[in-house]
Amino acid sequence: MTTVSTNKIALAVVGAHLTGQPLNYQLQERLATKLKTCKTAATYRLYALANTQPQKPGLVKVLDGGLSIEVEVWNLSAEGFGTFVAAVPPPLVIGTLELEDGTLVKGFLCEPYAISDAQDISQYGGWRNYKKSSEPKPLNMKHEV
After folding, report:
1. What pTM value is reported for the model?
2. Which end of the chain, N or C, is less surrounded by CB atoms within 10 Å?
């Protein structure tokens, strides 16, 4: 676990808690500060979980075929971290993630049973890229005269 400063805990988020996403307010309510945007080590797969509201991804560590996935690392007080973790719903869990630079931080992972009906979205490299790719494209409104 990386402790950024006394009584502060680094937490990597991968989906609905990213800046601009619907659950980011849960970090801000706990006075968390964003430290950086980076990638995990190339040992993870990312899945779009079925039946989650708001839609959430699940990050799973794998032995083979892993990729680097974009995450944000936030700094929380020990108390803020505790109340945050207590509110994490299954199948998500907080575990230890390895970042691209070898640093270990606490972060979101997913229990493996939940990926049985989930879509593997690892090729997008992160939740933001996946969400952008799944947004409806504007129609080309050219009119022929």
Report:
1. 0.87
2. C
How does strand 8-13 pair with strand 104-110?
parallel
Q: Which two tokens stand for residue 14?
A: 């991968």
**Spacing of C-alpha 10 from chain mean position:** 14
5 phi and psi angles, rounded to 5 deg: -150, 175
Mean pLDDT by 10 residues, the chain (145 residues): 69 98 98 98 98 96 98 98 97 98 98 96 98 72 50
Closest alpha carbon to 109 in 61, 71, 68: 61
Would you say residue 20 lies in a domain?
Answer: yes
Whether residue 121 contacts residue 44, with contact meaning beta carbons closer than 8 Å, is answered with no
Q: What CATH number is attached to the domain comprising 83?
A: 3.10.490.10
